[in-house]
Amino acid sequence: MTSPVLLEIRDLRKGFPGVQALAGANFNVQRGEIHALMGENGAGKSTLIKVLTGVHSRDAGEVRFDGQSIEPRAPVQAEALGISTVFQEVNLIPHLSVAENITLGRQPRRFGFIDWRRVRESAQAAIARLGLSLDINRELCSYSVATQQMIAIARAINLDAKLLILDEPTSSLDEKEVDELFVVMNRLRSQGLGIVFVSHFLEQVYRICDRITVLRGGQTVGEYVTADLPRIDLIAKMLGKEPADIESMEAATAAAHHQDAITLEKGEHNPPVLQVNQYSRQGSIQPFDLSIRKGEVVGLAGLLGSGRTEIARLLFGLDSPSSGSLSVDGVHHSRWTPRRAIEAGIAFCPEDRKVDGVIAELSVRENIVLAMQANRSVVRTLPMKKQLALAQHYIDALQIKTPSTETAVGTLSGGNQQKVLLARWLVMSPKLIILDEPTRGIDVGAKAEIESLVASLRSEGMAVIFISSELDEVVRTCQRVTVLRDQQVVGELTGDDVQENRIMEMIASSHE
Amino acid sequence: MSDASPNSTDRQSGNSKSALTRFFGSRITWPVLGLAVVLLFNAIFIPSFFTLEVRDGQLYGSLIDVLNRGSIGVILAMGMTLVIATGGVDLSVGSVMAISGAIAALILTETQLGMLGIVPCVLFAALAAGLMNGVLVAYLKIQPIIATLILMVSGRGIAKFITGEKIITVGDDSYNFYFDFIGKGHLFGLPFTVTLFVTLFAVTSLFVRMTSLGLFIESVGANETASRASGIHDKGVKIAVYVFAAFCAVIAGLIDASNINAADTMNAGVFTELDAIFAVVVGGTALTGGRFSLTGSLIGAMLLQTLMTTLYTYGVPSDVAPVPKSLVIVAVCLLQSPVFRGQLQRLAGKGGGR
């Protein structure tokens, strides 16, 4: 009889230059359970997973897997042992077929050639194991992101995996897709797989996980049975705070929100900072009107693909419109580009910060001064002293965790990269800042920080466009919410009407 | 006004790493070591390599020869570094050299304008060539390797057209002191080409680091879309680097033509673009763009020239010389790769019976 314990990590340690990422972490996973690994940015979740899967080597500690001590040196070795990982970003090849993607690198061969019949059989079996039905001969990219994620899981478990690690698997999925994923996860659990689930969505963790391990500062805070750990306690343990603190924090946001309605009425007479009329872009967003005043936070709510990001990109000039007009401070602009938008005092933190946001190779300092420098002419360089002072100021103000101002941004955690990006724009003191999913992929603590930052920017008179798929966040942060569905603006909510259920009603009611 | 930035040329400083990590992590360590190894080889096997003679107040010797002959490589590498840092490559510099030489020879033999005619004409040629490459890459989004291949192939044709498909020799009747001086003159006891490349290196280094051009180039090379979203004029930056690369190429072309007193469109600048790319890569700038090091490229170009001169001095026929040259390039590139060094360390660890 095999022991129920599948994975046992004891006192794991791993340091990077300037950071001790893991300082004695423990972690146990049993067969046939879904185990959540929770923690703030920099708690050591990613490092733990990377050591476990052989991406990084460890400094000290023991990892026992399936009854024996292991030390994989590369992901391939970890996979051979039965540890498979599916990452947030789908790491598959878009233009190969589903079957090829599932079997890539380990295709069955006959006489040295790929045995296509067995490739298809094996892929079909992997798909069937997840209870999915799809055409394995179609190109991967013809399927939705959610399905691609399932295919990635199918690929992972096709290796006779005993342990499946899912790192933020749901962050690009909508609710229905999450449900589908959970069905698959439950199925795998009943087959005796151990599943490690890393997610920032508390809701989902409570829905699917049997047990929770909390990491903080590279150490294990504790291991809990999900049902016995109230949410407020979990958050408290992740943040290293008392539950009472968090309740008062929540009360404060509620009070602030109440205040909003009053200030909003006062601001009614302010002229709009940005106004668009019948703005549209063929194939991505139907004509819409939008105006935003000084000191106002306007939310864009809707499901994934409803046109939120498309609006943001149009407003910042990253895409060009097919129709409509745009004016900033009453001045009409016709050829709208990011350069002009920045000149006019608009800033944009994009959804995909790795592609459109930070420049991973450059240092924290260079990333922070980049927009300001670009807005000056090439020869009017900011003096190094000023650059360092600016960078240091925002590192302190936003509590960016970085070893130095000269560290490459790519080495920081997601939440800290997001803060660097925010700093780049705050340096410019913009009139309007567009935040597209600013809290995506970052932990609870940093989320709260960003929410309170938005509130303080607003009180300084900045206008904010806030996009988030988490409705509670939208409701807490915004005074006005524009609701979108299927590339169309379907309505607007203001003041006391800004409530989660009203937004959901609005998204749902337009389904005829 | 105290608007000058202190010491911004050295970007590695300010890191709190240990001296040893910084030494092995620095991108110019390996080309410097490579150069040292080649010089050491010479010190042992060809001691005469280091002999310097003073004749008529001017220095002569193999080392001076390296500096003189290496000047074209260094100058091309300066332009190539900035192009590569934006994630591009410029294959046309050899052909632009030929065009530049052809223009100079034609003006000297057919007109009385001298340098007054040559300078504006080659500058115009540089601008035209750079704009063509830059616009193809930045606006028409053609892969840089293809975009510049167009001028690489057609440029030599243009040069031939200028010279009328023959070698134009700048004879005694069309002798011009200034033109002659570019390739064969001496200044401060050294060949004038040395002054030329040192000045170009110094001015370029200072300019890209004192202004924010260097930052913009690295930013565009590292992440083009994010740079655009930060308000950087990414297309302008790209066009600027291709124009600069063409500018370096016409200077190199003048040196070459002055050296041989002729415009030989078939042979001028052949394969120099590849040497320049080698120098940049050996110097530690990645072909994928981003961080760059002009100092690294300078040392890289010098390493290549020292190697070639050594091989010739040692009596290796010029047909065979590229083979040992490529071996050295491979060695330096491997040593620069953190992956390879990691594997070496692991092997060493195993060998030591850990």
TrEMBL record, chain A:
Keywords: ATP-binding, Nucleotide-binding, Repeat, Transport. Residues 7-242, 268-511 form the ABC transporter domain. One of its GO terms (molecular function) is ATP binding. The keyword Repeat applies. PROSITE patterns: ABC_TRANSPORTER_1, ABC_TRANSPORTER_2. It comes from the Bacteria. The keyword Repeat applies. This is Sugar ABC transporter ATP-binding protein. It comes from Aporhodopirellula aestuarii.
TrEMBL record, chain B:
It is found in: Cell membrane. The keyword Nucleotide-binding does not apply. It is a multi-pass membrane protein. The keyword Membrane applies. Pfam families: BPD_transp_2. The chain crosses the membrane at residues 28-54, 66-85, 187-208, 237-255, 267-287, 294-314. Keywords: Cell membrane, Membrane, Transmembrane, Transmembrane helix. This is ABC transporter permease. The lineage of its organism: Bacteria, Pseudomonadati, Planctomycetota, Planctomycetia, Pirellulales.
